[in-house]
Write a structure and sequence with these properties.
single chain, alpha+beta, Jelly Rolls, 25% strand, binds 2-oxoglutaric acid
Length: 234
């Protein structure tokens, strides 16, 4: 099952096909639906305003309300994936569902996740989990492979007011489409450039994005902890 971590440092990502059980998928889908049923909140209160109404919803930082989600986030599958990629114990730093609305789901521009942190930090791991089959039609993620040892830094990003997002790549590459079945994990570094397409299908495209660091991520000026620092217990 966990087959491709060997290339993680040289490629900047690894794919774990069919990684989640049906039960794990259902736990995440149920939590996602509960949050989707709430009124839309496009961000703010210390979060980036990256939502775009029903077209691109980020349902963030609510795992403590769902004990089974928290158990998953800190459990054995995540332990294997994070140890495989980071080669050391990890802690939960951040989590959010990302839902592209049916028929109108917005794309998401090229970025490195670390560009959203706002200050120097040790690169971390994003664990992107498909809750639906991901296709080019419904807004899958596209990656630019990156040798993490050769290119260990953040690239310049520009904030785009019209689309509520950072853009960190201005070249011609369209990236490798991470088309996959629901239950697949695409794990990539916070240095790996990625984007996602629009959802033109009649069904929503749901994903769960959880992020793992090797140390607490703190504002170097204030010492304030960003998000979470919960050890993965396995
Ligand atoms: O799920 C997606 O469409 C991409 C999400 C993403 O790039 C992110 O949360 O950094």
């Amino acid at each position: 099952m966990l087959d491709t971590q060997t290339g993680f440092r040289s490629q900047g990502y690894a794919v774990f096909e069919d990684a989640l059980s049906e039960d794990e998928l259902n736990v995440l889908r149920a939590a996602c639906q509960t949050l989707l049923d709430e009124p839309i909140d496009d961000g703010g209160n210390g979060r980036h305003k990256i939502g775009l109404g029903a077209a691109r919803r980020f349902l963030a930082h609510r795992h403590e309300e769902f004990p089974a989600v928290e158990a998953f986030l800190l459990g054995p599958l995540i332990d294997r994936i994070t140890q495989g990629c980071l080669e050391q114990p990890a802690m939960l730093f951040n989590e959010q569902f990302v839902v592209k609305g049916a028929g109108k789901g917005a794309s998401f521009a090229w970025h490195q996740d670390g560009a959203y942190v706002g200050y120097d930090h040790t690169p971390y791991l994003t664990v992107w989990i498909a809750l639906d089959d991901a296709t080019e039609e419904n807004g899958c993620v596209y990656l630019l492979p990156r040798d993490l040892d050769a290119k260990p830094d953040l690239d310049p990003h520009e904030w785009q007011d019209e689309t509520n997002e950072l853009n960190g790549y201005f070249g011609d590459e369209s990236g490798i489409p991470m088309t996959c079945k629901a239950g697949t994990v695409v794990a990539f570094s916070s240095l790996t450039l990625h984007r996602s397409g629009a959802n033109t299908t009649p069904n929503p495209r749901r994903a769960y994005v959880c992020q793992y660091s090797v140390e607490p991520i703190k504002d170097p000026e204030t010492g304030e902890l960003k998000r979470f620092a919960k050890p993965v217990t396995g």
